[in-house]
Design a protein that fits this description.
The protein is of the alpha/beta class and 270 residues long. It has one domain (3-267): Aldolase class I (TIM Barrel, Alpha-Beta Barrel), CATH 3.20.20.70. Helices cover 40% and strands 16% of the residues. The chain contains 11 helices and 8 strands. The protein has helices at residues 3-14, 37-51, 62-66, 72-82, 99-112, 130-133, 165-173, 191-200, 218-225, 240-243, 251-267; strands at 18-22, 57-61, 88-95, 117-120, 139-145, 182-186, 205-208, 234-238. The chain has an 8-stranded parallel beta barrel, surrounded by 5 helices. Helix 2 packs parallel to helix 4 (72-82). The longest helix is centred in the C-terminal third of the chain and has 17 residues, at 251-267. It is globular, with a radius of gyration of 18 Å.
Length: 270
């Protein structure tokens, strides 16, 4: 089974297209956990155990692990191994560099860490992305229209031919690989652009951050963002509103409750 169909099956099996972002901030760990690598590891483990029946993907944000110093990357590798086989393991590392460097990044995340997907910045061009696409059984998740306020600085700027920069990225990159390898990051804070994006890439999977703490909603994303082929084509990511639902020792149960609330909303579209 190819990547696309495998992910579609997983979504229907779990009746969910929820991606949970693991952004373990030492300053926001539950009160009873130590502010240390050990605390981060325990926090992530309990979140995963409590929500793995609901989530179809875990997006591990490398910045929060790299900030822990020498042991942070080892902690990331241990947390990555906690993700069950029936969940997509995504590294949110936003890599992108010249070919040789990208080849090493691909090896690090796809081969050494065992990730199924990796976020990649495409703005250095095709040769900076090809090394990731060489791993045909993995997902390359290209930044297209991100959820942050500063996305308007460049991504929404019009080029001389009248199209916006993110539209050019979408049009150009779809010639590099097909539905089984390319996924795109499109923020939930840009619901007005989703229908237009679907005109350009009707069936590709979209990773949609920004639901929850950043103000996006499941309904707002699904109204225009569902794949035109009827196969959902969405991974809706929520991070802070789930993993920090409680600062007490019931944090894992609170996270599972928040995840279920989103799952119920998603089932309407399944």
């Amino acid at each position: 089974m190819k990547n696309y169909d495998r992910l579609v099956k997983l979504i229907h099996d779990k009746q969910s297209f929820l991606c949970i972002g693991l952004d373990p901030d030492l300053d926001r760990l539950p009160d009873h956990l130590p502010r240390s690598i050990q605390g981060v590891e325990e926090f992530c483990q309990e979140i995963i155990q409590a929500t793995s029946r609901i989530a179809v993907c875990y997006k591990i944000n490398l910045a929060f692990f790299e900030a822990l110093g020498l042991g942070g990357y080892d902690c990331f590798l241990r947390v990555a191994k906690m993700v069950p086989d029936d969940c997509l393991l995504m590294a949110d590392a936003k890599r992108g560099d010249i070919g040789n460097s990208s080849r090493m990044y691909a090896k690090a995340f796809f081969e050494q860490a065992g990730c199924d997907a990796l976020t990649v910045a495409p703005y250095m061009g095709k040769d900076s992305v090809t090394a990731f696409l060489d791993h045909q059984d993995k997902w390359t998740v290209l930044l297209a229209l991100t959820s942050n306020e500063g996305s308007s600085d460049f991504q929404l700027r019009e080029l001389r031919n009248g199209i916006r920069l993110y539209e050019h990225v979408l049009k150009e990159s779809t010639s590099w690989a097909g539905l089984d390898q390319l996924m795109y990051v499109v923020g939930a804070t840009h619901p007005g652009q989703l229908a237009q994006i679907r005109d350009l890439i009707p069936d590709h999977f979209l990773l949609v951050p920004g639901v929850g703490a950043q103000g996006g909603t499941v309904a707002g994303v699904c109204e225009h963002g569902l794949a035109r082929n009827g196969k959902i084509g969405l991974l809706i990511n929520s991070s802070r509103s789930i993993i920090y639902a409680s600062t007490r020792d019931d944090f894992a149960e609170a996270a599972a409750k928040k995840a279920r609330e989103l799952q119920v909303q998603m089932q309407v579209y399944l």
